Amino acid sequence: MEDSETLSALLDRRASEVPDSLALVTSDGQTVSYAELERLSRRVAAWLTAQGLTSGDRVAVWLVNRIEWIALLYGASRVGVGIVAVNTRYRGTELQHILSRSGASMLVLDAQFRKIDFLSLLQDVNPDSVPDLSRIALLGREEPQPDTILGRKVVRFSLSDLSDGEAAQSVSAPDDLAVLFSTSGTTKLPKLVMHTQRTLSSHTGNLSRAFGFAEDGARLLGALPLCGVFGLNPVLAALAGGATVYLMEAFDGKEAVELIEKHSITHAFGSDEMFRRILESATEEKPMPAARIVGFAALQAGASELARDAWSRGVPMTGMYGASEVNALFSKQPDHLPLDEQIKAGGVPVSPEAHVRIRDVETGELLPAGKNGIIEIRAPSNFTGYWNDPDATAKAIDAEGFYSTGDMGMLREDGSFVYEARIDDAMRLSGFLVNPGEVEDVLKEIEGVEDAQVIAVTLEGKMRSAAFIIPAPGASPDPDHVIAETGRLMAAFKVPARVWVVDQFPVTESANGMKIQRGQLRKMAAERLEKEKY
Predict the structure, then answer these.
(1) Does residue 425 surpass a pLDDT of 80?
(2) Which residues 6+ apart lie within 8 Å of 179 measured at CB?
(3) How much is the pLDDT for 530?
(4) What's the whole-number mean pLDDT along residues 401-413?
(5) 188, 361, 438, 467: least surrounded by Cβ within 10 Å?
(6) Percent share of the chain, pLDDT over 90
(7) DSSP-assigned letter for residue 367
């Protein structure tokens, strides 16, 4: 497989080898073979050209997981048009920011999905803020469509309406923009991460080989939104390998279990929350009997306990690492490691050309194995920069091409690495860099504590740890007792100076699932400490 090529070229090669094999199966039973997907992508390329889009233009896709999303990506790849992946959870302000920032010429959307009225949400966009947007494409429906929206011409986009007419000439190149992904920050409007045909196709090839998508019977559960790398990367890898993708429009635990059982799903990737819902919805003790690779990202507290439980039920949840800037599933923990190490985020990069190093936060020196600092990555899958943001790009990528992830971690002696925490969440206590997860694990061992989140606070001019805990059902843990018990179990400088009992942690939605808002926890802590003064 040639990796330095376009995404559409990868599809063409697979379609020529296994034309009749199933490529996509949707939640409502639609099926698309590899030959049909290739044909659809050529029709879409011709349609984009007929709409006036040319190489270098961008089309924003605001859709749930549908065949149209995949067909648009491969079709755009043929004619050098970039896709702007818009999160379906975005609302007025975020949508306006993405459309304005990206300079998209066209927006493709469905008028409505379940209870979400996308047309109404679109009305919150200020037309003057999106001068580059020339037309809006609505998925084909029986009901009449408006002639204009936001003062822009409305066109119909329906795969069934597209013909095999004059096919567009492929004019794209490996270094053309392929997709703009949004970063998933919880406090600022997202930046746009640039990936070219080359960065995506090289990672797609490596993933397909590393995860065995070309092996007989490989079947992927496409459960995460295609608008994020965690959802799109495994789908592209599966299609490059000739596997079948079972595409879910939106994740539902019960529906996922049904698909897994009915179709003997072998590959699944998602957040800890996603697999928690699968395990809770499953009636069988072994809910994924055909599982070969189950990769997960820990976005919420309690992920380690969940993973251990999953293994006991035959679901081999394995730690991985990824980010929009380096693509999802960048690395995977080796199978030979003990379970407690195998479920940690990080691992060995899927690309043999990737380099991971650790830099000291304070001195800037590169660190040996066993020392924690900032994870830096250089790999063929690295993004090429932030769209129209040279300052942010320069801060993120150094002269050697290494991307500074902003994540804290360490190298192992065997060359693999471990992700520990966001560097902003790491705590500098008594001169030591402490991973909050280390303290959280101890807190959760204390009777009466169901869950815990630890952040750093300033008390009497010194940095100290503080904890928010959720009580176990029926329990009423005393904060002073929790502090005392923690002091019995770990070094004094790590022991929380304050413990606050809460019913739940603040969370935010991302393309990959629910993330705990640690920034909001720090704000809550500051408010509580301020009240202590009065």
Answers:
(1) no
(2) 73, 82, 83, 84, 85, 195, 200, 232
(3) 85
(4) 95
(5) 188
(6) 74
(7) -
302/176: higher pLDDT:
176
The terminus-to-terminus CA distance of the chain in angstroms comes to 68
Q: From 353, 72, 70, select the one nearest 238 (Cα to Cα).
A: 70
Residues 261 and 153 in one domain: no
Last residue of a domain, one of 381, 396, 422: 422
Shared domain for 366 and 462, answered yes or no, is no
Quote the DSSP letter at residue 131: T
Q: From residue 361, give the alpha-carbon distance in Å to each of 23, 345, 371, 372, 407.
A: 46, 20, 11, 9, 11
Instruction: With CA atoms as reference, report the closest residue to 189 among 386, 377, 398.
Output: 386
Stretch (H or E) spanning 232: helix 229-241
How many whole angstroms separate alpha carbon 228 and alpha carbon 163?
30
Whether 1 is in a domain gets the answer no
pTM comes to: 0.84
Nearest to 244 by CA among 280, 274, 277, 214: 214
| pLDDT greater than 60 at residue 436 | yes
Domain's final residue, options 178, 195, 212 = 195
**Beta-sheet pairing, 507-510 with 462-471:** unpaired
pLDDT at position 187 is 44
393 with 460, same domain: the answer is: no
Position 186 scores a pLDDT of 44
Retrieve residue 133's tokens. Answer: 């947007």
pLDDT of 184 over the 90 cut: no
* 407 belongs to a structural domain: yes
DSSP 170: P
Q: Cα separations (Å) of 270 from 386, 449, 468?
A: 25, 27, 26
Secondary structure (3-state) at 501: strand
CB-based contact 511:231 (threshold 8 Å): yes
pLDDT of residue 1 exceeding 50, the answer is: no
pLDDT digits (tens, 9 = 90+) for 26-58: 988 899 999 999 999 999 999 999 999 999 999
Give a yes or no: residue 57 inside a domain: yes
Q: For the chain, what is the domain count?
A: 3
Residue 256 shares a structural domain with residue 160: no
What DSSP string describes 27-39? Answer: TTS-EEEHHHHHH
468 and 386 share a domain? no
Residues 317 and 398 occupy one common structural domain? yes
Amino acid in the structure at residue 279: L
- Tell me, yes or no, whether 221 lies in a domain: no
Out of 87-96, 163-172, 389-398, 518-527, give the one with best mean pLDDT: 389-398
Residues 63 and 185 occupy one common structural domain: yes
What pairs with residue 192 in β-bridges?
A: 182
| Host domain of residue 285 | 251-422
Q: Confirm if 415 and 348 have CB atoms less than 8 A apart.
A: yes
